[in-house]
Specification:
By secondary structure, the chain is α/β, with parallel strands linked by helices. It folds into two domains: 239 residues, Rossmann fold (3-Layer(aba) Sandwich), CATH 3.40.50; 66 residues, 2-Layer Sandwich (Alpha-Beta Plaits), CATH 3.30.70. It is 33% helix and 30% strand. α4 packs antiparallel against α5 and α8 packs across α10. The structure holds adenosine-5'-triphosphate. Adenosine-5'-triphosphate binds next to β1, β2 and α1. This is ABC-2 type transport system ATP-binding protein. It is found in: Cell membrane.
Length: 334
């Protein structure tokens, strides 16, 4: 079931025209800037979709439209069945939002009192609130700092508290904006475990992140934006196939091997010296096992290492490509 549905979303900003001229005193000083140009997006219940793209790609603008903070200029949006800009108050009960860089909690209040205020704001019955809070406290380990004012919390504790705050009213949709930014490895893994738990309970999660670990560990699908348009949509594996299609085998020989090395299907071959070679091949055409078998049969191999690309290689190659590109881009589906 789709809990986020976006068709042809367009959003402009009115921006000041640069320059100073006498004519500007008599003419309109602003122009329209297209921040989002015809985006389609869908997130189902129990799905985590990574919403990715370089700075300025249009992620925040989309999320503001999805939360009802801004009205779109064109397109259709439904979040948990509602049109966000027309039903903003009702929508607030069905969505949760966490910004890793900002807290939604009251700075001077202990965490529990912030939760009590949120209970009152969302008008959650006391018994239901208590049950939900017990559940979230257990999942997020909130006990140890429940009575500490938010300003005294560590970043990890603060993010855990914000996650609880966003889910106290039991929303169907969760927007996560850089939830693991600045966290240490253990805290990141705690947040990711929690997001997986939430997904298993059927919440639809739209995750904005620059953290490659978040993408690899959490996302069922990724949507990559550039300059307001969807450039790629598909699974992490599909993105790897499209943007990082090569794997490498690095082989070390037990004695000097001179001259050229023959490896069928190798896309390229690099020699560092007579004792080492690096074979680059397309995964779609050959398996690492076949390349390895060939090397073991044909050469005196002392050791070999296979390196597979990661989402980091995808993002690097894609963003480099985007940097070189001018104008809009055709969407690619994985
Ligand atoms: N209030 C605004 N007024 C004018 N232009 C804006 C405004 N907010 C965003 N923009 C422009 O719209 C485009 C999309 O911005 P947006 O903030 O949605 O990108 P983003 O993908 O969220 O970027 P980031 O990763 O840096 O947060 C950018 O070119 C940005 O400069």
């Amino acid at each position: 079931m789709a809990l986020i549905e976006v068709d042809g979303l367009v959003k402009h900003y009115r921006v000041r025209k640069p320059g100073r001229s006498v004519r500007r005193l008599f003419t309109r000083h602003s122009e329209l800037k297209e921040a989002v140009r015809g985006i389609d997006l869908r997130v189902d219940a129990g799905e985590v979709v990574g919403y990715l793209g370089p700075n300025g790609a249009g992620k925040s603008t989309t999320i503001k439209c999805l939360c009802g903070i801004m009205a779109p200029d064109a397109g259709r949006i439904r979040v948990a069945g509602l049109d966000p800009s027309r039903r903003r108050l009702e929508l607030a009960r069905r969505i949760g939002v966490v910004f890793g860089q900002k807290t939604a909690l009251w700075w001077d209040l202990p965490v529990t009192e912030s939760f009590e205020l949120l209970r009152a704001i969302y008008d959650v019955p006391r018994e239901r609130h208590r049950r939900r809070l017990d559940e979230l406290t257990a999942l997020l380990g909130l006990d140890e700092f429940a009575h500490v004012p938010v300003r005294q919390l560590s970043l990890g504790q603060r993010v855990r508290s914000d996650l609880a705050a966003a889910l106290l009213h039991d929303p169907q949709v969760l927007f996560l904006d850089e939830p693991t930014i600045g966290l240490d490895a253990a805290a990141k893994s705690g947040v990711r475990r929690f997001v997986r738990e939430i997904r298993a309970r059927g919440v639809a999660v739209l995750l904005t992140t620059h953290d490659l670990g978040d993408i690899e560990e959490l996302c069922d699908r990724i949507v990559i934006l550039d300059r307001g348009s969807v450039l790629f949509e598909g699974s992490v594996d599909e993105a790897l196939g499209r943007y990082a299609p090569h794997s490498r085998v690095i082989v070390e020989f037990s004695r000097d091997v001179q001259g050229t090395i023959e490896v069928p299907f190798a896309d390229s071959l690099h020699r560092r010296d007579d004792r080492q070679a690096e074979i680059v091949f397309k995964r779609a055409e050959e398996t690492a096992a076949a390349v390895t078998r060939h090397l073991l049969d044909a050469y005196p191999v002392r050791d070999l290492r296979i390196t597979e690309p990661s989402i980091e290689d995808v993002v690097k190659s894609l963003y480099e490509e985007l940097g070189d590109r001018a104008g809009g881009a055709e969407p690619a589906r994985g």
